[in-house]
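A favour, since you know our structure tokens better than I do. Just paste the record in under my message, thanks.
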Amino acid sequence: MQKPNQLSIGEVARRTGLSVSAIRFYEERGLVLSVRNSGGQRRFARSDIRRLSFVMIAQQLGFSIERIGEALKPLPLHRAPTKTEWSKIARNFHDDLEQRISTLIRLRDKLDGCIGCGCLSLDQCGLYNPADSAQRLGTGPRYVISDEMP
């Protein structure tokens, strides 16, 4: 008999939108932990829906499984984390997210003009990046990657 706070892997898949194989993968990586019932079937805590949802969001934002795992490590398994515990996770990602937001804003605002790549192929590059002055900032699209402008 299934305990009320436990969900089968199929139920977790339906609730999260993840495939069963993805849930197994995350379990292998230690992001969630199942217990086995008397029949040997995996059972997950209801709180694992939140953990897996966080994993999905963090991955969509480009965070690695390793980074996500490190962030989740302090959270308890088999019970819902407290607001304070989730706040610690949020602080852990805050600076990275702010940097990513800043980069996305620069990309949005500069993509149709000079991005500081040094190509000097657009007429505007002569205005934004005369004589390839962006090279002092390093290689690549410096006006998007860096906060600096000439």
About this structure: Residues 83-110 form the longest helix (28 residues). The chain is about 50% helix and 5% strand. The mean pLDDT is 87. The two ends are 68 Å apart (CA to CA).
